[in-house]
Design goal:
heterodimer; A: mainly beta; 4-stranded antiparallel beta sheet; B: globular
Chain lengths: ~120, ~110
């Protein structure tokens, strides 16, 4: 049973470009959350998708957008890249994202470097 | 956004020692989760605490949620090199604290 998978593993982009990161949730999960983890910091919540809609969003600008597909996989899009967008982008999946003790499983992340 | 402060930021100890790390906030949480993250990997969920005053044990790890649900602690007994990692706390669907980097030397 594959866990959460993310692609690509590493990515290098130039300022102003756009990037798309991909995530496949753990089998049986229907909810995907995205996080940004800068070096030396904890993950910051970007947004969560359930039933193909954005359900909750953290403090990130509109340059960050996402999508969830009918098979529950998800994409994170970042437009007009800034140097400060360089980070590890983590995807986490869970089942229905509800309840006080729901478990979410993280993928290994995509390391994005903006030059 | 609820601000979480974790302390200490770094901790280096010898195998067999005990340690406690803390997660504090001025906000009240409905629940709090603890994770461990190793280099090159995503965080792995250790436990979720929900009730004020709750204590949960996971082998040598003991997690406590404060009575007012504003803080939490993680105590490790007889630390082992395999406990080395970044320990993070987070409320559900929110930003994590910056974590405590623990190094356990053999």
């Amino acid at each position: 049973d594959a866990g959460v998978t993310q692609s690509p593993t590493h990515l290098i982009k130039t300022r102003g470009q756009q990037v798309t990161l991909r995530c496949s949730p753990k089998s049986g999960h229907d909810t995907v959350s995205w996080y940004q983890q800068a070096l030396g910091q904890g993950p910051q919540f970007i947004f969560q998708y359930y039933e193909e809609e954005e359900r909750q969003r953290g403090n990130f600008p509109d340059r960050f957008s996402g999508h969830q597909f009918p098979n529950y996989s998800s994409e994170l899009n970042v437009n007009a890249l800034l140097l400060g967008d360089s980070a590890l982008y983590l995807c986490a999946s869970s089942f229905r994202g509800v309840g006080l003790s729901y478990e979410q499983y993280f993928g290994p992340g995509t390391r994005l470097t903006v030059t | 956004t609820q601000l979480l402060e974790q302390s200490p930021q770094f901790l280096s100890i010898q195998e067999g020692e005990n340690l406690t790390v803390y997660c504090n906030s001025s906000s009240v949480f409905s629940s709090l989760q603890w994770y461990r993250q190793e280099p090159g990997e995503g965080p792995v969920l250790l436990v979720t605490v929900v009730t004020g005053g709750e204590v949960k044990k996971l082998k040598r790890l003991t997690f406590q949620f404060g009575d007012a649900r504003k803080d939490s602690s993680l105590h490790i007994t007889a630390a082992q090199p395999g406990d080395t990692g970044l320990y993070l706390c987070a409320p559900l669907k929110s930003t994590f604290g910056d974590g405590t980097t623990l190094t356990v030397k053999p």
